[in-house]
C-alpha cells in the first residue's frame, strides 16, 4: 500500500489498510538485516520509513524540483547507505520483494525521477549522500569520484590540489556526479574538451545481482552505455574514474548585457559562436526579468581559456560586432570562473562550492532543443515575445557547440549530438509558489514555446538532451512500454545509439529490474 493513500485511510479510521505498508517496511528491514548480517541499530541508522520523523527532511534534502513536493508517489523507505554492501543489500531485497528501486545522487533530475515514481507501487529510494569521497591523483591526472559527490565538491577538490587542472562539466555546483555523467554533462569548457562523460576512464557499477563491476568486468558494451546512456537503466554507479583536464592559471570571463540591438547580435552570434577558437565559449541567455515589469533581458556570457589580451584580439578578429572590450573582461583563476558561473562573487572563498543547501530549489520545467541552422530574426523575436507572456522567470539558454564536440563521433558514447549542431537551447521556466493553476499555466507555456520553435530546430528526430529529461516527450507506461513506443523519446535523446542501448540493456538486465518512466527498454517487452 502506497503511503500517500495510507494517510487517507488513516483519516477514514481504517488503519488496517496501513498494516500492509508497515509490514512491507518490516519485511524489507528484516531482509536487509539478513543480507548484511548486521545489527538492527546500524540498519535503523540508515533507513527512514514514512513514519520516521526525519523522513520528510531526508526526502526533501536534495530534491530540486518542488513541483513534486506533495506527490503521493514517494518511496515507502529511504536508505542512506554508508557502505556499498548496503546498496547491494537494497538491490537484492528489492528484487526479492518485487519492489522497484530509485537511486539519487544530487537530486537535480528535471522530472524528479530519482525520488519519485509515477507508478502506484511502493518503491525503495537509495540516497547516496554519504557516498561522496573524491580522490585526486595528479600523477596520472585522474580522479576517483564517488557518485554522491557534487560537481561543486569535485571542482573544489581539484582546485585545492592543483592550479592548472579542472574538469569539463556543468556550472551548477549542487548537481550530483552520479546523474550528471550518466546523461552526458555539458558545461562551459565543452568546446575545448567535450562532455564530462567523454572523460570517464573507469567506473564501479553494481548490477542487478548486487555484483560490483569495474570497467573490465562489466565489459566495453556496458561501459559504453553508462557514459551518457542512462546509467540508471543498467545498475547503480558507485564511482566514476575521470580524466582531469589542464586549465591555464588565468582565464578571462566576460559578461555583456544587451539592450538595444539584442536580436541583431544574437542572430549574428548563431553564425559565429560554433566556429570560434575552441578556447572561447560564448553563450546567450535571453530571459524575462521575472517580475511585474516583464522586461526582456539578454546577456552574452563567456569564458576564454587564456588572458584578456589574446581574448580581445580573437574577438576583434571574429566577432567585432559584439564590441567586447576590456571593460567587460575579468582575469581570474579557473576556480574563480566556476564561482562566477555559479552566481557567487569571484572573491568568495571556494568553500562555498561545498554548500549543498544554496541551490536552485523551486518549481520548474525544462525542455531542450538543438539548432542546426541559424534562426531568422523574426523567429528569434517571436521567441522573445513568448518569454514575456507571463509574469514568471523564464530563460532561453543557448550554448554553442563546435570545437571538440565536432571531433567526437556520434557513437563514441551514447550522447549523439555532435557535429552539425550550432548550439543547444534549454527552455527553463521557474516559479516560486505553487498552486494547480500556476503550475498548469507555466507547464503549458513550456509546451507552447516548444511548439513555436518547431520550424527552427532539428528534425527527424527533433533531438533532445537526456540530461534535461522531459516526460512530455513520452514515458514508459507501467515502465514496460515496448521498444518501438519508447523509441519516440529514445531516438530524440540517443538517435542511432538507442537500439544499441536496448540491446545492451536486454543482455545485462533482462528482467528490466532497473527501470523508470524513461529508462532504456528491453528490445522485447517483458511484463513488469
Ligand atoms: C538547475 C539545473 C541546471 C542544470 N544544468 C545542467 C548543465 O549545465 N549541463 C548538463 O549537462 N546538465 C544540467 N542539468 C541536468 C543535470 O545534469 C541532470 O539532471 C543530472 O541527471 C542530475 O544529476 P543528479 O545526480 O544531481 O540527479 P539525480 O536526481 O540524483 O539523478 C538523476 C538521474 O540519474 C539517476 N542516478 C543518480 N545517481 C545515480 C547512480 N549513482 N547510479 C545510477 N543512476 C543514478 C537517477 O536515478 C535519475 O534517474 C541541470 C539540472 C538542473 C536542475
Ligand atoms: C547509530 O547512530 C548513532 C547516532 O548517530 C550512533 O551513536 C551509533 O553508533 C550508530 N550505530 C551504528 C551501529 O552504526
Ligand atoms: C503541499 O501541501 C501542504 C499541505 O496541504 C500545503 O500547505 C502546501 O502549500 C502544498 N505545497 C505545494 C507545493 O503544493
Ligand atoms: C586542501 O589542501 C591542503 C593542502 O594540500 C590540505 O591540507 C587540505 O586538507 C585540503 N582541503 C580539503 C578540504 O581537501
Ligand atoms: C581590431 O582590428 C582592427 C582592424 O583589423 C584594428 O585596427 C584594431 O586596432 C583592432 N583592435 C584591437 C583592440 O585589437
Ligand atoms: C545475474 O545472475 C544470473 C543468475 O545467476 C545470471 O544469469 C546473470 O547473468 C547475472 N547478471 C549479470 C548482469 O551478471
Ligand atoms: C505491463 O505492466 C502492466 C502492469 O504491471 C501489466 O498489466 C501489463 O500486462 C504489462 N504489459 C506488457 C506488454 O508486458
Shape: globular
Category by helix and strand content: alpha+beta
CATH architecture of the domain at 251-337 and 357-464: 3-Layer(aba) Sandwich
Could you give the distance between the termini?
18 Å
CATH class bucket of the domain at 251-337 and 357-464: Alpha Beta
Which regions contain 5 or more consecutive residues with pLDDT less than 50? Answer: 1-19
- Strand residue content: 15-25%
Sequence of strands across the biggest β-sheet: 15-12-14-13-17-18-16
Bound molecules: flavin-adenine dinucleotide, 2-acetamido-2-deoxy-beta-D-glucopyranose
The count of helical stretches stands at 17
User: Which radius of gyration do the C-alpha atoms yield?
Assistant: 23 Å
Give average pLDDT, whole number: 92
Characterise the protein shown here.
Its cofactor is FAD. This is FAD-binding PCMH-type domain-containing protein. InterPro entries: BBE, FAD-bd_PCMH, FAD-bd_PCMH-like_sf, FAD-bd_PCMH_sub1, FAD-bd_PCMH_sub2, Oxid_FAD_bind_N, Oxy_OxRdtase_FAD_BS. The structure is a single chain. The chain is an alpha+beta fold and 528 residues long. The protein has 17 helices and 18 strands. It has helices at 3-11, 16-36, 40-46, 55-60, 84-96, 151-161, 177-182, 190-193, 215-226, 262-272, 308-318, 334-341, 377-387, 404-407, 436-452, 483-494, 498-508; strands spanning 47-49, 77-79, 100-104, 123-127, 134-137, 142-146, 165-166, 200-206, 212-213, 236-243, 245-246, 251-258, 280-289, 296-304, 329-332, 363-371, 393-400, 423-431. The strands form 4 sheets. Strands 15-12-14-13-17-18-16 form a 7-stranded antiparallel sheet. Strands 5-6-10-8-9 form a 5-stranded antiparallel sheet. α2 crosses α5 (84-96). It is globular and about 70 Å long. The model is unreliable at 1-19 (pLDDT under 50). One 2-acetamido-2-deoxy-beta-D-glucopyranose (NAG) binds next to loops.
Amino acid at each position: 500500500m502506497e503511503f500517500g493513500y495510507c494517510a487517507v485511510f488513516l483519516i477514514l479510521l481504517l488503519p488496517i489498510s496501513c498494516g500492509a505498508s508497515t509490514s512491507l517496511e518490516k519485511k524489507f528491514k528484516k531482509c536487509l538485516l539478513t543480507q548484511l548480517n548486521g545489527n538492527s541499530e546500524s540498519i535503523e541508522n540508515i533507513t527512514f520509513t514514512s513514519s520516521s520523523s526525519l523522513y520528510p527532511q531526508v526526502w526533501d534534502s536534495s530534491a530540486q524540483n518542488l513541483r513534486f513536493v506533495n506527490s503521493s508517489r514517494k518511496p515507502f523507505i529511504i536508505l542512506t547507505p554508508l557502505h556499498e554492501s548496503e546498496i547491494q543489500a537494497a538491490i537484492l531485497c528489492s528484487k526479492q520483494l518485487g519492489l522497484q528501486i530509485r537511486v539519487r545522487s544530487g537530486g537535480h533530475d528535471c522530472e524528479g525521477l530519482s525520488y519519485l515514481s509515477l507508478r502506484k507501487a511502493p518503491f525503495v529510494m537509495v540516497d547516496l549522500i554519504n557516498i561522496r569521497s573524491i580522490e585526486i591523483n595528479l600523477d596520472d591526472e585522474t580522479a576517483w569520484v564517488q557518485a554522491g559527490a557534487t560537481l561543486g565538491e569535485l571542482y573544489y577538490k581539484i582546485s585545492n590540489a592543483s592550479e592548472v587542472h579542472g574538469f569539463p562539466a556543468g556550472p551548477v555546483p549542487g548537481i550530483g556526479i552520479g546523474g550528471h555523467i550518466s546523461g552526458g554533462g555539458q558545461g562551459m569548457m565543452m568546446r575545448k574538451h567535450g562532455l564530462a562523460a567523454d572523460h570517464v576512464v573507469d567506473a564501479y557499477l553494481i548490477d542487478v545481482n548486487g555484483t560490483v563491476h569495474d570497467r573490465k568486468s562489466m565489459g566495453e558494451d556496458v561501459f559504453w552505455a553508462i557514459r551518457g546512456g542512462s546509467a540508471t537503466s543498467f545498475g547503480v554507479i558507485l564511482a566514476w574514474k575521470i580524466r582531469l583536464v589542464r586549465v591555464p592559471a588565468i582565464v578571462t570571463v566576460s559578461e555583456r548585457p544587451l539592450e538595444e540591438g539584442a536580436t541583431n547580435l544574437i542572430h549574428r552570434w548563431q553564425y559565429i559562436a560554433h566556429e570560434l577558437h575552441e578556447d572561447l565559449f560564448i553563450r546567450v541567455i535571453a530571459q524575462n526579468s521575472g517580475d511585474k515589469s516583464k522586461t526582456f533581458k539578454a546577456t552574452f556570457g563567456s569564458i576564454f581559456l587564456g588572458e584578456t589580451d589574446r581574448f580581445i584580439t580573437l574577438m576583434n578578429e571574429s566577432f567585432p560586432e559584439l564590441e567586447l572590450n576590456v571593460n567587460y573582461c575579468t582575469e581570474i583563476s579557473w576556480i574563480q570562473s566556476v564561482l562566477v558561473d555559479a552566481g557567487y562573487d569571484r572573491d568568495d572563498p571556494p568553500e562555498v562550492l561545498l554548500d549543498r543547501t544554496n541551490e536552485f530549489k523551486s518549481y520548474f520545467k525544462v525542455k531542450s532543443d538543438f539548432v542546426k541552422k541559424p534562426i531568422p530574426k523574426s523567429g528569434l523575436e517571436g521567441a522573445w515575445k513568448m518569454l514575456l507572456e507571463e509574469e514568471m522567470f523564464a530563460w532561453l539558454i543557448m550554448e554553442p557547440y563546435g570545437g571538440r564536440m565536432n571531433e567526437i563521433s556520434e557513437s563514441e558514447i551514447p550522447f549523439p549530438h555532435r557535429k552539425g549542431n550550432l548550439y543547444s537551447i534549454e527552455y527553463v521556466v521557474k516559479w516560486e509558489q505553487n498552486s494547480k493553476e500556476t503550475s498548469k499555466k507555466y507547464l503549458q507555456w513550456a509546451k507552447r514555446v516548444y511548439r513555436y520553435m518547431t520550424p527552427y530546430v532539428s528534425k527527424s528526430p527533433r533531438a533532445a538532451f537526456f540530461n534535461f529529461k522531459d516526460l512530455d516527450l513520452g514515458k514508459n507506461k507501467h515502465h514496460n512500454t515496448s521498444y518501438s513506443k519508447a523509441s519516440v523519446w529514445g531516438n530524440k535523446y540517443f538517435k542511432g545509439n538507442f537500439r544499441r542501448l536496448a540491446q545492451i540493456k536486454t543482455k545485462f538486465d533482462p528482467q528490466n529490474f532497473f527501470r523508470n518512466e524513461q529508462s532504456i527498454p528491453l528490445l522485447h517487452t517483458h511484463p513488469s
